Fold this protein.
Amino acid sequence: MTWLWRRGRALVVAAPVLWLGLFFLMPFLVVLRVSFAEAVIARPPFSELLDWADGLLTVTLNLGNYTFLVEDDLYIDAYLNSIRVAFVSTLICLVIAYPMALLIARSKYRNLLLMLVILPFWTSFLLRMYALIGLMSPTGFINSALALAGIGPITMMQTDFAVYAGIVTGYLPLMILPLYSTLEKLDESLLEAAHDLGAKPWKAFLTVTLPLSAPGILAGSLLVFIPAVGEFVIPALLGGPDQLMIGKVLWTEFFNNRDWPLASAVAIAMLALLVAPIMFVRNALGAKE
Amino acid sequence: MTAPAAQRAPTSAPKSDRAFIRIEDVVKTFDGFRAVDQVSLDVAEGEIFCLLGGSGSGKSTLLRMLAGFETPDAGRIEIDGQDMTSVPPWDRPVNMMFQSYALFPHMSVAKNIAYGLKQDGMSRADIEAQVKRMLDLVKLSALGHRKPNQLSGGQRQRVALARALAKKPKALLLDEPLSALDKKLREETQFELMDIQDSLGTTFIVVTHDQEEAMTLGSRIGVMDQGKLVQVDKPRDLYEFPRNRFIADFVGSVNIFEGVVAEDLPDRVTIASDALGGAIHVHHGMSCQEGQTVWVAVRPEKMVLRREAPTGVLGETVGGMAQGVVEDIAYIGGLTHYRVVLPSGQRVRATLANRERHDDAAPTWEETVWISWAGDAGVALTS
């Protein structure tokens, strides 16, 4: 029995490890390898790193892709802009999601309300973004309604606003759910104790509810921030041509310029940039425990 | 609070008879259920008042209305002469110690205690001094920097007490203050709680379901049942002079014999009881009519259990007697509980103190014995 048990445990662990190794680690290593190659007009469009000739092994590591990222303002601007957009969207999500999560956590109809929060996930992400175009385009729903009132049209498409609207509608549930799960666990007698000790509701919220929901805030923020930084679909569909985001740059390098090594370097740099905040948050949470 | 401790009576004696907390005809209904039903109660300053009742008796709801977490549907609550009926909890001069303690898990012990003082806008130096005083009071001076999850249950209970007392409330409301502690610790803490109350002179209102705890702590006890305050009395009066069968049964254990009034004299009543299989004499007057059904309550420790028939005269020194068979014996060390079956089928509990180490002569299982009690041991109840 113990033999079977141990085998079973090993199998349970092996399956995800194998999956991650095959479909996450391997592609990552491929991308890492390509990022050190040189772009060539060939198939595949990058040079070999290893060369074996006359008993001599030559390793050619091209660091030019990475130095180019720093030298050309385009990439730095795109990174900074992506982070800015992701940060602002995360903040908007947090401000909208917190009261919602608090309300759901204290509602009698929490299951129904949670269902409604998750409901949009049943529609394809792409479809939801197209629906936003239908709402915001110059001849869309909003402008048609405004035209009836004799106002407008207002330009919404191809603006920062459209990108924020897209990210916030797309990712809001990812903020609400972790917030809900921490707020729902919050012991109500703690708030009563705060009130009893003289804290008015607003003060009790700031000193008790808010600090105790910090893990939920951090988890939700990461869930929104990380995909928002690399977001490609939303800026491509809703954003303007001057809306510089790293996801779009990556796409252009890969498919328009066919510069796979540079695109790979962009991807690796982005990953490194995203790992830093995750590690920071993990440590911050770890210190709290 | 100005009187020195030495001049104070050893147990929480009220400072005055003036009603410090006044509850008038308070009603609270939840979804059509009357949780608190027309309760009126006066609590004197400096007293430890215990609200005793089972779960759902309304004792916690009453306490929560004093704290301000619930608003009465009808009636009035007054604290120190001021109407508090609809004052929110943050503006009330009372503090509460929660059953779960409700310590803020993200704050240190010192921060927890300082929380209420900060809300009052007290200066930093004053807060520090008061926190130190409170930590000394509950003997936790060394643990001020710890987080609540680094404390034992008993220590957490002290922090909760210190936090609730830090603002020098006019009354401290304690919701099952000792229920989370184990038995030994609970007994120690009971006395500590009384010492602290004695040294501060703060009015305590304690909610508990544990009658022993209520008896130990309370200068007076109010027993609640189904939203109503059934009896308010000193512990001894509650035990020896219960108002009805519910109180007699709820506070301690009791034998109750049903019977009808056979003779009603000003200073004594004779009751014919089929349950006992004979007459019961009660040495106190009561307002009743002949032929009325009444119940006589006799505490197990007031029962005399012997092989021989009692020597006294029934109606003079003996209040009641009957022969029965020992059905069960529970030896618990200091005491032995006997259960005797009477011919009527009624079971009688008798408790004997084990004064001697060797007692081979004690009645044993299946033995026929006499039970009896003294003329003034029983209480007749009309409801």
Observations:
- Residues 2-35 of chain A form the longest helix (34 residues).
- The radius of gyration of chain A is 24 Å.
- The mean pLDDT of chain A is 89.
